Amino acid sequence: MKQIELRCGQIIIPFYFDDNQQESVEKLTKGLNEIINDKQLSLEEFSKKVNSLLNSRKKVNFFDDALLTVKGNALMEKEDYEKANILLELSLDRATQGSYSEEIVLFLRLAQYQFIIGNEEKGTEYLIRLCEGEVSNYVEVINAYGLLDIWNQYSKYVEGKVRASAITEMADTKEPTECSKLIGEIRGIKEKHELLTELSLHINEICADGEYLNYLNKWERTFFYIDQLWERVNSDGFESYLTYDGKNFKKAKKASEDLEIVELTRILEKVEKKFPRSKVPRNTDKIEDIIDEKELEFDELDDEFYDGYDAIIADALYKYFETYSEKFR
């Protein structure tokens, strides 16, 4: 397993690759650096070369959107706004399925560019997408990336349109090495359900029960999405899950598809079909409004879930951890 680190502000983002991915990742990184460092390129030439480099990739990798975002952010810092925006828009278009690697930086910088060119409507749209993402304490995370001055300059455009920031609400996150039980100890647990329980506690300690999902890597987030849904639905049913955690519904469904949990994917499709255009909104307030207005009922789906899904999900998560245990920290 190979590792590459990207730095964005004060945050270092590690990415892990299998040996067969390394050459492609290194080629993309080197090629993009060469294009960025060629100061003679016009905007049109810059765009063509970047697109040509990306299109040479046989398969989009989860690393691509993070690299484009980090490089776009660096160009914004140098006030090379047009080239920066080219990279940021490509990151938005090329994002791998699942969450954007660095969506807060991506949406804030995209918004900044739109405000610079005088498009307040589009800039506001990007800021709203930032605020409605996975991280509830987005202002604190913006500060960690060293972009608080940019946020303060434009945050007035979303006042009253999104939830209040949680900058003063310090979530209780932990480094993987500070958790109650280290991942090495968890790997040594033989009993399936005990292992899954301890792994769930470990991951929730790292991300403060989902408040800081950007603190998790790709594999940990995949586990979290399924584990969160499993726990919430088991406790209070689908309506409770949708009301409190519905912003993660799409990602949970994608994780279920990736883990090939056929039964779970099928029941989540039934949940989707209850919503207009078979689409669950990302905003939990909107989800709650639709449930109330349409008088949506989930009792039958709850009963179906309770009748046998525990074993199915437990087996799938256990197999997933066995396969990728070295990716968990």
Descriptive report:
The protein has 329 residues and is mainly α. It has helices at residues 19-37, 43-55, 62-77, 81-94, 103-116, 120-131, 138-144, 148-154, 183-187, 192-207, 218-245, 249-258, 262-273, 284-294, 299-306, 309-324; strands at residues 2-8, 11-17. It has a two-stranded antiparallel ribbon with strand order 1-2. Helix 12 (249-258) packs antiparallel against helix 13 (262-273). The longest helix has 28 residues, at 218-245.
Map the helices and strands:
Blueprint: E1 2-8, E2 11-17, H1 19-37, H2 43-55, H3 62-77, H4 81-94, H5 103-116, H6 120-131, H7 138-144, H8 148-154, H9 183-187, H10 192-207, H11 218-245, H12 249-258, H13 262-273, H14 284-294, H15 299-306, H16 309-324
Antiparallel strand pairs: 1-2
Helix pairs in contact: 1-2, 2-4, 3-4, 3-5, 4-5, 5-6, 10-16, 11-12, 11-14, 11-15, 11-16, 12-13
